[in-house]
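Our preliminary data section would be incomplete without showing what the modeling component actually yields. Below, a chain of 465 amino acids is followed by its predicted structure, encoded as tokens that our downstream tools consume directly.
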Amino acid sequence: MSGPQVDPASLQHRPAPEPDATDPATPWSAGIRRTADGALALAGHDLPALAETHGTPVYLLDADDVRARARAYVEAFNAAFADLAGADVYYAGKAFLSVAVARWVHAEGMSIDVASGVELATALRAGVPAQRLALHGNNKSDAELTEAVTAGVGRVVIDSLAEIERLADLAAAHGRRVPVMVRVTTGVHAGGHDFIATAHEDQKFGLSLRDGAAREAVRRILARPELELRGLHSHIGSQIMDLAGFGVAAKALLRLRAEVADSDGVLMPELDLGGGYGISYIGEQAPPRPQEVAGALATAVNDACAELGTPVPHISVEPGRSVIGPAGLTVYRVGTVKPVTLDDGGQRLYVSVDGGMSDNIRTALYEADYTAALANRRSQAPIVASRVVGMHCESGDIVVRDVGLPSDVRPGDLLAVPATGAYGRAMASNYNMLPRPGVLAVTEEEVRFIVRPETPADVMALDLG
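Predicted structure:
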């Protein structure tokens, strides 16, 4: 096609960076390489062969990379808080949870936070001890709370005043004492799109410091002997690259902790600083390393406690997508390729693939940035401004909004979109009645589906006629 070629320095239409495990800003998993014949390979397995055998679209998960990232966070926080009161690292089940993933991260020393009854059941099925689980949610059902109480989860994160009495009554009915934390809205928010910045006041999560709701929650919990107040919890957002907000939030939580100790004589032993640490999606910015995160939080907590004259609490964090996100990628097969003339006279190549917003809603929902690369060959053709779109009946069905692709991309080619391990399969749908893709775990020794791909029969099975 004719049209403007892409300046390699342009952020808007630059091609995907080549896989490079030494590049801290790479969006590719550690096991991705470009082979001599130009195809991409994961852990030594050519993507074209995987696509031919297992179909497309397909989520690929670099299993060794998942485990290495989980291990890195556990080791970093253990080291940073070794001389303080210790730390726990929780895997965010909402990013993507399966029995296999739960087993991997637990084996590397992580606990798991869950946000629904099925997430809780999945973690338990994986053999994760209930004491290593935390239940979140702004609208937990009685059934979910009962499941948490009877299983003996390590903590329930309280998200509203009404939840306190409901949980206490359920605990009493089952003869249990339930450990709880209070999710506090600190007013500090950070990260990407407004929908994923979760600590400003005008949103559904948590209990506010500003209007006294958090303090009232503490008072009510202390009045119910069926509940054990373990500490305070904060989550300031998601896809966070700047760590400064965590220090501000930590100081606000620690100040409330000190106030409760002074007024009620109860010094809460724990503090959860949430997570949401960012990842690289397009190779533009290197995310903070686990050692940087752990060191920054240890310093912030230690300094604030010294200023307040209170002992340092046991800390927990939830790194979120940074464990699973970079370890995943999605492989699509190209269908229609269409040049479109723009209002300014330029052209954009629209490259349609066999998936779309049903397997990655984040571009449409959050205007999230992704990149894409030819996975089946190397091309010497000029790079042109391109948009990767799905097959759904929506103009907003966009997988990659702006990327430079070779001008000779053609039907049958494979495209790989990196950094889809988090919130790809977890947020997938059956829009237009498309079956959801499977999740294929890949190591050098083994390739296997840990979540099988749906079939048309699966999609139709719920239709009772």
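The domain at 32-62+327-460 is CATH 2.40.37.10 (Lyase, Ornithine Decarboxylase; Chain A, domain 1). The radius of gyration is 23 Å. Preliminary results of this kind motivate Aim 1 of the renewal.
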